[in-house]
Amino acid sequence: MIASSFRDCKAWSAENLPMSTSSNEACKLYDAILTQFVKWKNDETLGGFEGCFTAIQAADPNFVMGHVISTGLNLVSTSSSTRLDERLASAVRRTVELANSQDISPRERLHVKAMELFSHGNYPKACEIWEDILVEHPTDLLALKFAQDAYFYMGAQLQLRDSVARVLPYWKPDMPLYSYLKGMYSFGLLESRLYDQAEKVAMEVLAVVPDDAWSVHSVAHVYEMTAKVDKGLKFMKSTEKDWQVSDVLASHNYWHWALYFIEKGDYEAALQIFDSQVFRRCKATGSMLDTVDASSMLYRLEMEGVCVKDRWRELLQVTQPHTDDHVTLFNDVHFLMASLGAKESRISQRMLEGLQELAKEPGVNLQHQMGGTIGVPMFQAMMEYDQGNYNHAVDLLMPIRYRLVNMGGSDAQRDVFNQLLIHAAMKSEDKHHQKLGRCLLVEREAMRPNSPLTDRLMQKALALHI
User: Fold this and answer.
1) What CATH number should be reported for the domain holding residue 25?
2) Which residue range(s) make up the domain with 202?
3) What is the overall mean pLDDT for the chain?
4) Are the C-beta atoms of 80 and 327 separated by less than 8 Å?
5) Which residue in 286, 294, 271, 224 sits closest to 451, CA to CA?
6) Torsion sign across C-alpha atoms 125, 130, 131, 136
7) Are 65 and 111 in contact (CB under 8 A)?
8) In this structure, is residue 391 part of a structural domain?
């Protein structure tokens, strides 16, 4: 039996979120899965996500919201494509069939519709439906969390912030998981560049719930985006014991910690975190977040002149099975980093051609729609840079630089592409590009004053182009 603290049928109804099942056990398991999702944590005492997915199926095989949360979580993990993964595609179909064969609530019906749209890559429409649910049911945390993930994959920064702002007043502090909601709000504030406010809200949360890894992550972003390196290092160290238990996000928080070291030019310390935490966890979980972080980190170190070639080969073992996925462009460009780093031009070429093919007839899939306009030029720019054709890389990157936000991820994660453009401009033979490189560094300094990395690159640019 699942712990009595989780909500049963009656408790969900009392919150105006009735579930179409008579199984209290199924309702509690739904709550247990939702709680782990919000806390970014596989709770072993509950059997983790996988154990709960199996248990909820056994408790009530026809519980529609049980299917919505289990299949929905698989979809938002972006680790496999319904185009190629028949098991995932049939799980989506099964949920739709179940919903059509039962008398369920309008809210549950909307959940099924949103999940189905998301599975086809129609993220904007799925978000509209989750938002419709939230207008009527502002405490439906699953709708909010799924919308947050989809907005993140679309780089919809203001929506990340506003979707939480709209529901917060309807929540009471004694409601389950209330504090975690404020952590989500902090992240939305941060991605809207309201750094002081984001830090304040996250710190308020951490005073109450020190183990909210997402709020820690929000503060880590603030110090990264404002180049407060020493403050960031101190903060990560002093809170490590609290957030490392959130195994789903721990690797990402370690990645943020390592970014401070890269910013400082302490590459040894960064590599130590890469080896002992980021890559070790990435290999164990195969999670997309961990995989893109590992790729991005090696790519940044390589641009800084650090030799990481053996690590690329190991990382390619993790990324290669996803060569044909094309679930999100953001994942794709990170897999490309690994194939380029490992000098596997055949895989790089295959990824590019696969993306070009999907971009021809993208249908409702947002990521494939952007494939031709953003994805392909980004791929080509990275391939040109890898070949030493820096002027071509600049010419491909400049027209799309302000559209890269649509590829998803956070400002901190996308900064790798800003750095790529700066490095390409500095290394280009073209005098105009070299001047552009210095202009981009001046622009960077304006946004994050006193950044050691910017200073280093400026010194390098001046030395190169005397």
Assistant:
1) 1.25.40
2) 172-229
3) 97
4) yes
5) 224
6) positive
7) yes
8) no
Classify residue 129 by burial, with Cβ atoms within 10 Å: 0-12, 13-18, 19+: buried
- Residue 466 pLDDT exceeds 70: no
Indicate whether 408 belongs to any domain. Answer: no
- Confidence bin at 140 (pLDDT 50/70/90): very high
**Are 78 and 151 found together in one domain?**
yes
Q: Is residue 53 part of a domain?
A: yes
Q: How many domains, in total, are found in the chain? A: 2
- State pTM to two decimals: 0.97
Residue with tokens 């071509």: 392
Return the structure tokens found at 62: 């026809």
3-state helix, strand, coil in the chain (%, to 5): 75, 0, 25
* pLDDT above 90 as % of the chain: 97
pLDDT in tens, 91-124: 999 999 999 999 999 999 999 999 999 999 999 9
Q: Do 177 and 35 touch, CB atoms closer than 8 A?
A: yes
Q: Are residues 150 and 220 in the same domain?
A: no
Report residue 223 as tokens.
């110090």
Q: Which of 170, 186, 205 is the last residue of a domain?
A: 170
Q: Provide DSSP, 14-83.
A: HTT---S-S-HHHHHHHHHHHHHHHHT---GGGTHHHHHHHHHHHH-TT-HHHHHHHHHHHHHTTSS-TT
Does residue 143 lie within any of the structural domains?
yes
Q: Report, as an integer, the average pLDDT of 239-251.
A: 96
Q: Which of 129, 62, 56, 71 lies closest to 102, judged by CA?
A: 62
